[in-house]
Design brief:
The structure is a single chain. This protein has 271 residues and is α/β, with parallel strands linked by helices. It folds into two domains: 205 residues, Ribonuclease Inhibitor (Leucine-rich repeat, LRR (right-handed beta-alpha superhelix)), CATH 3.80.10; 50 residues. Helices cover 32% and strands 15% of the residues. A hairpin with a 2-residue loop joins β5 and β6. The protein is elongated. The structure holds 2-acetamido-2-deoxy-beta-D-glucopyranose (NAG) (6 copies). The site of one 2-acetamido-2-deoxy-beta-D-glucopyranose has 4 residues, from loops.
Amino acid sequence: MNVGVFLLLVSVLKTATFPIVSSDPSDEACLTHLSNSFQDSNNKLDDWTKNNFATPCNDSTANLKGATCNNGRIYRLSLNNLSLKGTISPFLSNCTNLQSLDLSSNFLTGPIPPDLQSLVNLAVLNLSSNQLQGQIPPQLTFCAYLNIIDLHNNRLTGPIPQQLGLLIRLSVFDVSNNHLSGPIPASLANRTGNLPRFNSTSFIGNTDLYGYPLPPFKNKGLSVLAIVGIGLGSGLASLVLSFTGVCIWLKVTERKMALEEGKVSNHMPDY
Ligand SMILES: *[C@@H]1O[C@H](CO)[C@@H](O)[C@H](O)[C@H]1NC(C)=O
Ligand SMILES: *[C@@H]1O[C@H](CO)[C@@H](O)[C@H](O)[C@H]1NC(C)=O
Ligand SMILES: *[C@@H]1O[C@H](CO)[C@@H](O)[C@H](O)[C@H]1NC(C)=O
Ligand SMILES: *[C@@H]1O[C@H](CO)[C@@H](O)[C@H](O)[C@H]1NC(C)=O
Ligand SMILES: *[C@@H]1O[C@H](CO)[C@@H](O)[C@H](O)[C@H]1NC(C)=O
Ligand SMILES: *[C@@H]1O[C@H](CO)[C@@H](O)[C@H](O)[C@H]1NC(C)=O
C-alpha cells in the first residue's frame, strides 16, 4: 500500500468517525463564563444556551449569534451594539483560538481582564464605546499579533502602557475619550523605523494625557503649582497683615493708655 492510498484512507476514516459538530472544553468554559458575566437584558443572545456551548461549532458555522468558527474552534466573536451590560469574564482567555474580539457599543463595565494575554492569536480587539474602567493592561503586549486596539469611548484611567509600542503589527490604536493620564509614550506616537505612528486623533479627549502629539505638560501640573503658590502667598500675606494689624492695635492701645494715664495724671491733684 503506497503512502497516497494510506493518507486517503486516513482522511476518509477521519471524516467518518469524527462528527462535524465539534466540542472543545476550552471554548465551552470560555462561552459559559462569558455568558454568565454578560447581562443580556434585551435577550439578544437567545441562542447562547448551555447545549450550544458544548458544541458551538458545526463545521465553520457557529451555532451562536456573533460567533464564527474555524477548524471547530471559535475564532471570531462579534457582539457589538447588543445593549449588553455586565462585565468581561477573565475566562474569555479560554477561547484560545480567538483572532477577533468585538464587544463594541454595549454598556459593559469593569476592567479589561489582563488574562486576555493568553489570546496569543488575537489580531483585533475592539472594546470601544462601553463603560470599561481601570487601566489598560500592559499584558496585552503578549498578544503579539494585535493589529487593532480600539478602546475609545470608555472610562479607562491610568497611563498608557509604553510596552504596547512593542506590538510591531499594530496599525490602529485608539484610546480617545477616556480618563487616561500621564505622558503619551513615544513608543506609540513617535515610533521608530517604518512602524505607523499614531497622531492626536488616537489620544484626544483625555484631559490628563500630555506630550506629543498632544500639547506638552502644562495645565494640571502648573495649576497645582499655582494653587500651592497662591496658598503659600496668601498665607504669608495674611500673616504679615495680621501681624501689622496687631502692631497697629498695640500702638493705638499704647497711645490711648498713655493718653488716659496723662488724663488721669492731669486730673489727679498733685500731692
Ligand atoms: C481556562 O483558563 C484557566 C486560566 O487560564 C485555566 O486554569 C483552565 O484550565 C482553563 N479551562 C479550560 C477548560 O481550558
Ligand atoms: C450542521 O450543519 C448542517 C449543514 O449546515 C446541518 O444539516 C446539520 O443539521 C447541523 N448540525 C447541527 C447539530 O446543528
Ligand atoms: C444599533 O442597534 C440599534 C437597534 O438595535 C440600531 O437601531 C442601530 O442602528 C445600531 N447601530 C449601529 C451603529 O449599528
Ligand atoms: C470598533 O467598533 C466601532 C463600533 O462598533 C466601529 O465604529 C469602529 O470602526 C471599530 N474600530 C475599528 C478599528 O474597526
Ligand atoms: C521623534 O524621535 C526622533 C528621534 O528618535 C527625535 O529626534 C524627535 O525629536 C522626536 N519627535 C518628537 C515630537 O518627540
Ligand atoms: C491621523 O491619522 C489618520 C490615519 O492614520 C488620518 O486619517 C487622520 O487624518 C490623522 N489626523 C490628524 C489630526 O493628523
